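Could someone model pyridoxal-5'-phosphate with this protein?
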Amino acid sequence: MTEHQLPQGFETLAIHAGQEADPQTGAVVTPIYQVSTYKQDGVGGLRGGYEYSRSANPTRTALEECLAALEGGSRGLAFASGLAAEDTLLRTVLQPGDHIVIPNDAYGGTFRLFAKVLTRWGVEFDVANMQDLATVRAALRPNTKAVWVETPSNPLLGIADLTGLAEIAHGAGALLVVDNTFASPYLQQPIALGADVVVHSTTKYMGGHSDVVGGALVAADAELGEQLAYHQNAMGAVSGPFDAWLVMRGIKTLGVRMDRHSSNAEKIVELLSRHPKVSQVLYPGLAEHPGHDIAAKQMKAFGGMVSFRVVGGEEAAVEVCNRARLFTLGESLGGVESLIEHPGRMTHASVAGSALEVPADLVRVSVGIESIDDLLADLEQALG
Ligand SMILES: *Cc1c(COP(=O)(O)O)cnc(C)c1O
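Reply:
Sure, complex below.
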């Protein structure tokens, strides 16, 4: 990974893993190798192992090594989007006739991938409450090949016990897949807790600036990593060099951003918790959150995502979203700027009528790293 043999902390790895100074020019930042093919020195004589940029590209390689280092896995892979990463993973580890257990509060696009794409391809799934290990155990079948979990989950901020889930999955001969998008590896390290594969939408906190769409997989095990790399090339949903570069640039500041996202979110939660127009605040940092103790154990801080329910129902919740000014009304999350949205009509419209339907009075905010007083003032006026 790097030529230094000294032990390295997370923030050091974020800035240096996979990113040695360019050997030819000394450039301290990995260049954007905007190139599709590579000159060979005689037939089959590859310089540095590169022959075609779907198979490998030096900018993408740098990001992939960094991802593996940050998640403590043996292989990192970068994709065109989070869903491209998920699709590649699922069609590597599952075959028609296999079964997978997915969370009852999965990201809407993940649910749609299962319900509308993978079922047509012959994969069966069951939905379980990942916060209740007995329910997960009951959902297992002889053909279960994987258990999929998001923690904290989207948009209900549910917390699942990763150590417990790893035990259950492995006991059934299944993989534990963790979508670590909401926490990021700075706040939570699923592989150390027993996960086999970590999934990211790098569009979110990893990129961190709302300027790129990307995805990642990190495999704990080298052999599975090799199979995933084979499918990454065979299926072709790779990250382009500029997108890989943007994600890598974002990752350099991941630690300081996550600290600020988390501390700003805690102050937003304080305001919401005592506001008469708010009936419930969903945030794992709250002592009354059912997953608080597990979150405190498996996360470094509680992150920047906060959801809350508005007194007055769906229309009142939509109005709060419409009145916000500094909190930008929009989908996505994890950028430096604060965002607000109504999951029922926006990000989670595709799960309406399913087991994953979210409350109509729910508002989700992605707390950014702007001045906290400005954020508090905006929410105060939006709540009216
Ligand atoms: C956004 C998101 C995804 C999908 O990623 P894309 O980059 O949009 O394809 C998957 N999981 C979670 C938790 C997400 O927030």
